[in-house]
Amino acid sequence: MMCLDEFDEAILSNCGRFHTEPKRGSRKRIGNFAKRPRLGVDIAEIDCTIEHIQRSRLGIRRDDQEYLFLLYQKTGETAVSHNQRDEVLRPGECLLLDSTKTATLGFSGQHASFASVHLPRGLFLDDRNFFPAAGRKIGAAHALHGSLKKVLFSDESRPEMDFSADYLFDFVRMIFGSEIGTVEASRFRNRDDLFRYVQDTIDRKLMDSGFTIDCLARHVGRSRRQLQRDFSDNGTSFTRQVQQRRLMFVKSRLERNVRLGTRTPISEIAFQSGFNDLSHFNRLFRKHQGISPREFCSQMAASVGAFETQH
């Protein structure tokens, strides 16, 4: 069993900036955290006896990785407050949590265990018809629940359970997808939520190398000047934001390809992400990551190999 500091470090290193509140009077032996690879992503197995785990706006701003966490309750109960919804997860139930939104997972000091599937958010928003219905609980009565459970927990050594790498992504899209309607950014009363919607719209248009701030303005129902002010208030610009989102997408694709052993050329991924100048892409990637894309893949491959050797 991990003490609070060990548990916190495991959460920070693998999930991002979440705050753990221990059970009153107890900071020792609060839980366990283990991670395993599955279909090119990580699944964290968590069991704990704590008060709550919380995701704040500060934590969101300080993280440079964005995920959709698919939570699957195994034992006990988890009270989830997320995306303006309140749900209680019981064994066999699951829920999609969006790391770009605040969340509280409450346990009231009672023991609980759950799996958390880490799905790179940018890879999902690349599908323009998908937008995550975060915070909505799915129970065992759902038609696809049994198939999803099989994908997550089946014995990978059995040949009849040989799922393709996209199988899990397809299931999440089917179960947790929602239709994207016409939404004007001005309808968001909170400025953080408004800017998040602008970022999400950019994510869905990354593959369009000709995407401009005027295109963005038409999609979100704001003027060019209003958008420039939005970006300035958040310490960035349209050009810088598009570059950062494209680099984040490339990084997620490279990480997943290394995990799956897929040999997609880096140049192809760069062009798919909206970059139309390979030299410019390489310079930007090195500037943001400190290493070249090829070196990044080599480091990822070494890290994955070390993990597999240990397990």
Q: TL;DR?
A:
With 311 residues, the protein is an alpha+beta fold.
Give the tags.
311 residues; 12 helices; Jelly Rolls; alpha+beta; ten-stranded antiparallel beta sheet
Please identify the structural class as seen in this structure: alpha+beta
CATH fold annotation of the largest domain = Jelly Rolls
Specify Rg, calculated over alpha carbons: 20 Å
Mean pLDDT across every amino acid position: 86
Q: What is the helix fraction of residues, given as a range?
A: 40-55%
Q: How would you portray this structure in words?
A:
This protein is α+β, with helices and mostly antiparallel strands. It has twelve helices and twelve strands. Strands 1, 2, 3, 4, 5, 6, 7, 8, 9 and 11 form a ten-stranded antiparallel sheet that branches. Strands 10-12 form a two-stranded antiparallel ribbon. Strand 5 (78-82) and strand 6 (85-89) form a beta hairpin. Helix 4 (145-153) packs antiparallel against helix 5 and helix 9 packs across helix 12.
SSE diagram, text form:
Layout: H1 4-14, E1 19-22, E2 31-38, E3 41-55, H2 57-62, E4 67-75, E5 78-82, E6 85-89, E7 94-98, E8 103-106, E9 111-120, H3 121-125, E10 131-132, E11 137-138, H4 145-153, H5 167-176, E12 177-178, H6 191-204, H7 213-220, H8 224-233, H9 238-260, H10 266-272, H11 278-289, H12 293-310
Antiparallel strand pairs: 1-3, 2-3, 3-8, 3-9, 4-7, 4-9, 5-6, 5-8, 7-11, 10-12
Helix pairs in contact: 4-5, 9-12
